[in-house]
Write a structure and sequence with these properties.
By secondary structure, this protein is of the alpha+beta class. The protein folds into 5 domains: 88 residues, GIY-YIG endonuclease (3-Layer(aba) Sandwich), CATH 3.40.1440; 100 residues, no CATH class; 113 residues, Nucleotidyltransferase, domain 5; 162 residues, UvrC, RNAse H endonuclease domain (Nucleotidyltransferase, domain 5), CATH 3.30.420.340; 52 residues, Orthogonal Bundle (DNA polymerase, domain 1). It has 19 helices and 21 strands. The strands form 4 sheets. Strands 14, 15, 16, 17, 18, 19, 20 and 21 form an 8-stranded mixed β-sheet that branches. Strands 4, 8, 9, 10, 11, 12 and 13 form a 7-stranded mixed β-sheet that branches. A hairpin with a 5-residue loop joins strand 19 and strand 20.
């Protein structure tokens, strides 16, 4: 048994990381400390206030463990790694796990290539980026290879020169053919150097060259070639226009700002590379404690830069953050050079931080409005229905429908909506066992009886064995049953519930003569609903979904029955071959249309079986 009071006495007065576990031994919080003794003690002192969420966490702590480090910096690194691995419930967490693309020029090769990369390794390659758009990176690489005709293959050159034929790119004039020795290493390297200049933002030479080639081709009446040069020219101009100059110092910077409410936060990052704003991105942060904005930004910096290979020389923030010097030292260690964390007070830098701040606030407000609209469609709509039926705390709704065509394969469907949203994992299908004709009332009686009997049996077994845990779709009973129809369907449901001694409210979704929903039938009264309300729209969605699910199940059974019954009549076709044919061809028409050769090529089939199937369909009117 873990005695917290006794274990607190054993804590060392040294830097390190502490790990909190709950009663199920799940890690719920990870933190670092300059002094483990002082920091961990604070959690269990009644006078110490860390906020409501921290109080809730402390109540769940069953035990803690700790790891001693030599310095606060080592503790920070270890804390980052452990949080990323375990993602504890009460830690402030970066929700997004994004990796940014780079353009890699393999300068360590004799005949370098320009490649797409998600990592920046310590090799002889030259990396450009990171960029925020993978699509833009791929487009840029494609453009560079077209302009400079660089190789894209993975052949080992010069070792493999002349061993294989040149690829298609050589024949369509998009590669100079170094694999055949058609270009010297020196001339090829000149093209690579020009590509590197292009990636550095020096577009002048290539623009001039492409324009000259376009004009020359046009004068020679080579109009198709002129169009190719014109398209390349336009592509280069588009890339050049996207590179907006923001600074003249040509350095790499990240500008970071934050917008937060009581539950969520959005961090906006502007990426400046070689003095150019190459992109921006935003990140959602789950706030795990009553952290200040500075603490949230500090946590973001630790988690974000522990997962990205590129560390800029300068990070600009709207305000001071805790452990700023320790973070700067940690970043410098990862970068292999000095990193400055700065809070600009005036000029262009301050305006850029303000711009990032406004962007973060905009994203947060837009998402908040989006969430409100979604809640109106779901939880709000359910509350409207609950108000109409005089029901409080309406959460789970189950709807049932019956589908058959002339009594063929009658089926039932059960769909579930929780908090106004479909819970598809709880949907269930019923193939009728006792009803043979088109009797919807009797069919519904069977479906409802099976559904609730099964649920009661499972609950009884759980109680008998004293099992606990999450309830399944049958053991969880609804707050409301919605029947597709009026008085008749409602009465069938009430009869089943009475037989099983269950008390669950039931209402019918009544349709008009045009088969459109017009209201709810509840307690022997039809209740009209405003067609413009969210509650009415939710009822319509539930009704349509129940019908769709039943029809979809019925259609799949009809298709299988048709194929099964016909294939079973063919000599030499047993269960294995029937299954293989169904898997390959999906439908009876596709099997009919297949040739003998195609049929024979099917798994488990041979020529004799293929001939048998082919003759069956082409010598009879099936």
């Amino acid at each position: 048994m873990f005695d917290i009071a006794e274990e607190l006495k054993k804590l060392p007065d040294q830097p390190g990381v502490y790990i909190m576990h709950d009663s199920r031994d799940t890690i719920i919080y990870i933190g670092k400390a300059v002094s483990l003794r002082k920091r961990v003690h604070q959690y269990f002192q009644p006078s110490h206030n860390e906020g409501i969420k921290k109080e809730q966490m402390v109540k769940q702590i069953a035990r803690f463990e700790y790891i001693i480090t030599d310095s606060e910096l080592e503790a920070l690194v270890l804390e980052c790694n452990l949080i990323k691995e375990h993602r504890p419930k009460y830690n402030t967490m970066l929700r997004d796990d994004k990796t940014y693309p780079y353009i890699r020029v393999t300068l360590g090769e004799d005949f370098p290539r320009v490649l797409f990369s998600r990592q920046q390794k310590k090799d002889k390659s030259r990396y450009f980026g990171p960029y925020t758009s993978a699509g833009a990176v791929k487009d840029t690489i494609e453009l560079i290879n077209k302009i400079y005709q660089l190789r894209t293959c993975s052949r080992n050159l010069p070792r493999d020169i002349g061993k294989e034929r040149p690829c298609l790119n050589y024949h369509i004039h998009q590669c100079t053919g170094p694999c055949q020795g058609y270009i010297s290493r020196e001339n090829y390297r000149e093209r690579v150097d020009a590509a590197v200049e292009f990636l550095n933002g020096n577009y002048g030479p290539v623009l001039k060259s492409l324009e000259a080639k376009m004009n020359e081709a046009s004068e020679n009446l080579e109009f198709e070639r002129a169009i190719e040069y014109r398209e390349l020219l336009n592509s280069v101009k588009q890339i050049a226009q996207k590179q907006k100059i923001t600074h003249t110092d040509g350095e790499d910077k990240d500008i970071i700002a934050l917008a937060a409410d009581e539950q969520d936060a959005v961090v906006q990052v502007f990426f400046i590379r070689d003095g150019k704003l190459i992109g921006r991105d935003h990140f959602y942060v789950r706030i795990g404690t009553e952290d200040t904005k500075g603490q949230i930004l500090g946590t973001f910096i630790k988690q974000f830069y522990s997962g990205t290979p590129f560390i800029p020389r300068e990070i600009m923030l709207p305000g001071e953050i805790p452990e700023q010097e320790v973070l700067a030292d940690w970043l410098a260690g990862r970068r292999g050079g000095k990193v400055y964390i700065r809070i600009p007070q005036k000029g262009m830098k301050e305006k850029l931080v303000e711009l990032a701040q406004k962007n973060a606030e905009l994203v947060l407000s837009q998402d908040r409005e989006k969430i409100k609209r979604e809640e109106g469609r779901t939880i709000g709509a359910l509350k409207e229905i609950g108000k109409l039926l005089d029901m409080e705390n309406l959460q789970r709704v189950e709807a049932f429908d019956i589908s058959n065509i002339n009594g063929f394969e009658t089926v039932g469907s059960m769909i579930v909506y929780e908090k106004g949203k479909p819970k598809r994992s709880d949907y269930r299908k019923f193939k009728l066992k006792t009803i043979t004709g088109p009797d919807d009332y009797a069919s519904m009686h069977e479906v409802l009886t099976r559904r609730f009997t099964h649920g009661m049996q499972e609950l009884a077994q759980m109680e008998e064995k004293e099992l606990s845990g999450e309830y399944g779709s049958f053991t969880r009973f609804p707050d409301l049953i919605m029947m597709d129809g009026g008085r008749g369907q409602v009465n069938i449901a009430l009869k089943v519930l009475e037989e099983l001694h269950l008390n669950i409210p039931v209402c019918g979704m009544v349709k008009d003569d045009n088969h459109r929903t017009r209201g709810l039938y509840y307690n022997n009264v039809e209740i009209p609903i405003d067609r413009r309300s969210e509650g009415f729209k939710l009822i319509t969605r539930i009704q349509d979904e129940a019908h769709r699910f039943a029809i979809e199940y019925h259609r799949s059974l009809r298709s299988k029955e048709q194929v099964h019954s016909v294939l079973d009549d063919i000599p030499g076709i047993g269960p294995a071959r029937r299954k293989a044919l169904m898997k390959k061809y999906q439908s009876l028409d596709a099997i009919k249309a297949a040739t003998e050769e195609d049929l024979a090529a099917t798994e488990t089939m041979n020529e004799q079986a293929a001939l048998s199937v082919y003759q069956f369909f082409h010598s009879n009117s099936h």
